[in-house]
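Bug report (template v2)

What were you trying to do?
Predict the complex of my protein with FE2/S2 (inorganic) cluster.

What happened?
Run completed; filing so the output is reviewed.

Input:
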Amino acid sequence: MAEGKKKDNVDPNRRAVIIGGAAAVAGIAAGIVIGGYAFPRTTKVIQPQVTVEKEVSTVTQVSTTTTTVPTQVPQQVGYVKQKVANISQLTSPGQYVTTMYMGYLVYIIKTGVPSENGVGPNNDIVGFSASCAHMGYILVYDPSNNCLLCPQHFSQYDATRGGMQVVGHPNQFLPQLILEYEESTGDIYALGFNRLVYGTYNTALQGLAQMSGGGNS
Ligand code: FES
């Protein structure tokens, strides 16, 4: 009797809420199950790409014939071949010729001893730019020690050793002329400088411009 009363005492609104909640939970569960079947989860398996490298054996064939490998000969691009002296002007050690090569003042010197890049019967004739590698002042040749001296800051370059700096400011050699000696005539030709002459960024190009009257620009 008392229990029946209890049942009857349940608030109808509360009962509706409980019933509604239970129905919602049941619906969600059913949705999950149905959704699982309707939209099965797929897993994309990414296969790693495997690259198989074949070993290639190299067979070296030994040729029995002789192959001539072409020799790379450095070219003096842009310089011109120009006569700068004759052997008759350089008969004694210490003699020198002052001349112009492609618009640059140069010395052609007979050192009297076999010298680096020297030409002539004794390989003792060399040529150099007359402009100091430090700031371009005109050098003076001193036969007593075979050096080119700078009167401005007293640098010295050894004419027998390719213009190597022996005293002073510049950390470089004096630009040397590449010379060629023609035995039949005794003529000495300049083929170009082995370094940039002071104040030039392209000695050959600017020399050509000077020769054609374009100036040293
Ligand atoms: S210009 Fe010749 S040492 Fe300075």
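What did the reviewer find?
The two ends are 125 Å apart (CA to CA). Residues 82-211 form a domain with the Rieske Iron-sulfur Protein fold (CATH 2.102.10.10).
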